[in-house]
Structures are given as C-alpha cells and as structure tokens.
Amino acid sequence: MGTLLLNPIVFSIGSLSVRWYGLILGAGALVGLLLAIREGKRFGIPSEFFMDVLLFGAPSAIVAARIYYVAFTWDQYKNDLWKVFAIWEGGIAIYGALIGAIICAVILVRRRGYNFWRIADICAPGLIVGQMIGRWGNFVNQEAYGGETTLTFLRDRLHLPSFIIDQMYIDGVLHHPTFLYESVWSLGVLILLFILRRAKFLRSGELFFSYFILYSIGRFFIEALRTDSLAFQGPAWLASFINGLWSPMTWFGFEQGALDPSYGNIRISQLLPILIVIGAIVAMVLRRKLIANLPYYSDPIVSTKISEVDSLPAAASQEKGTTPAKGTMADHLDETEKKE
After folding, report:
1. pLDDT digits (tens, 9 = 90+) for 285-306
2. Which portions of the sequence form the region Disordered (predicted)?
3. Local structure of 248: helix, strand or coil
C-alpha cells in the first residue's frame, strides 16, 4: 500500500485553478442554504432572505476563520504575509468561522426586523450539515488528520473503505481520519436537531444552543486525536482536568495525537467546547427564568419591519379619524356607487 494523493485541483483555466477544497465547502454551504429555505417556508420567511444571509455570511465566516487560525499560528506567517491569504492551502478554524457568521447574521437579521434567535434556530441544521460536508475538504488536502494508528484498527475495527485508509497513509505512516470522525458525528447531530425541532417543549434559541452543545461535545473528544491542534501553555491542573475528561476514549482503543510540549499543553479546541457547553446550558436556563412568555420554536415568526410598514397607513387613519385618501380603491368604489 502506497500513499494516495488525490489531486487537489479539479481543473485549471489558464492561471486560474478550481480546487476540490473550495467546491466541497461551496457544496456544504449550498446544502445548508436549502435546508434553511425549506424550514423557513413553514414560517413564511422568503427564500431571498436566507440567500442574503449566505451571501454576506459566507465571506464573513471565511475571513474570520482565517484570522482566528493565523492569530494562533502567527509564527508561520509573520515572515511571509502573502501566505495569510492562501486559504486554498487549508488553515481555517471552524470556531472562527462561526464567530464571523454570527456577527454578520446578527447585523443582517436585525436590519430585516427578525428576531435573531428565531432565525438562528432555523439555520442551525444548515450550519452542521455544512460542517459535515466541508470536512471532506480536509480529506482531499490531507490535513486535519490524527495521530498514528494501525491498519488493523482502521480496516478491521472501524471497517473503513480502502480509499479513506489509503489517503490517510502519509509519509509512510497511517493516521486517524479525524475529518471522518467529525463528519460522522455531525451527521448524528443533524439527526438529533431534526428530532428536537419537532419537540413541543422547545423554546426560541434552544435549537441553536443545542447545536453548539452537541457539536462541541464531539469536537472535544475528536480534537485530542489531532496532531495540528492550536494550543497554548496553561496551568497543569487545567491540562490534567481536560485529559481526565477525555480518558474514556482510551477504552475504545484511541490515543491522543502528539502535541509538542513547547507549543502548549492545552488544546484550544478542547477548552473552548467545555466553555461553550457550560455557557449554552446556563443561557438556556436563564432565558427560561428571566424572559416572560419566551416563544416556542413552533410559534409564528414576524418581521417587525414588515408589520410596522403594513400598519402605518391604518394606524394613521385611525389616529386622525380620517377617511382613506382620494385615489385609493375605497375612493374609487365610492365614486362608482355615486354614478350608479
């Protein structure tokens, strides 16, 4: 068995190259958009709104994901700043992408008069399906893989197909296909979100928080298998605590990927999921306690911009006690009755 390197370039037109990485990320975004549009129809939200969210949110997510990654790996880029823009070579962070997308969505949703949490709930399945598909871009680029493993573990224990095993044979060593682990976990999260959003007890924002909780749990355990984790030097007690939480993975035959002690002893994408899970649970509890009449997921969604515009003429007429202005349909009907 030799190293199988898939050509990351699909085709080229002159100096322009179209890469699998970009196509796969684009496919994930498109499927996520279609899921949001389909669910949005149940609430009477026009599909154009979700297209705008993707149009503005996707670039924001990519830029923020790259900034997040570069910020924690600055030593790799400080002597060659042009490489900061080479995102086709990989090197983006999913949590950075989420930060960028959320900031953009908050601005856009408020401008359209919708409640952010209601729209975030609708978009949650689309976010996870985008991640599920997008991870296969890492597969093509041979990146974001885990530590060393054996052919017996991958073939006989996990029953993985040969094309995945061969692509994980890098520099003469087999590695854990962590991209696949996360993609499969994301599929499970997607199914759970589909089930949850039909639950009668679900309140506004809770599907979005559930997405973060479920994804973060999987990411915490998968991240420790990787060898390219962003990390920092933290207190020994915190590193020991995180390793203790991860230790059940050893029961299934997994071992942590190598992490250079001089680089750090705490993986950022293990600490952040812990904080996200705690924060999301606290937020859900507090919102139920502090917000009176918190809407259910199934409640109607109305844009305040639309309702305000539609109500202005009627409200103005009632306040002034006037009749509709001449030239309106009502005025035309009155003139017709007089002629008759």
Report:
1. 999 999 999 999 999 999 887 6
2. 313-340
3. helix
DSSP per-residue letters across 51-80: HHHHHHHHHHHHHHHHHHHHHHTGGGTTT-
Per-residue burial over 181-192, b if 16 or more Cβ lie within 10 Å, else e, is bbbebbeebbee
- Domain membership of residue 210 (yes or no) is yes
In the numeric block, which tokens belong to residue 224?
């420790």
| Dist CA 289 CA 304 (whole Å) | 25
Name the 3-class secondary structure at 174. strand
Which residue shows structure tokens 């006690």? 321
Distances (CA, A) of 223 to 131, 240, 259, 270: 15, 16, 11, 6
Binding residue numbers: 135
Q: Is residue 316 part of a domain?
A: no
**320's tokens:** 């002034």
Report if residue 331 sits inside a domain.
no
- Give, in order, the Cα–Cα distances in Å from 10 to each of 13, 87, 228, 302: 10, 16, 26, 44
Helix (H) or strand (E) holding 267: strand 266-267
How many domains would you assign to the chain? 1
> Is the model's pLDDT at 227 over the cut of 60?
yes
Residue 29 lies in a domain: yes
Give me the domain span that covers residue 91. 9-302
- Say how far apart CA 273 and CA 210 lie, in whole Å: 13
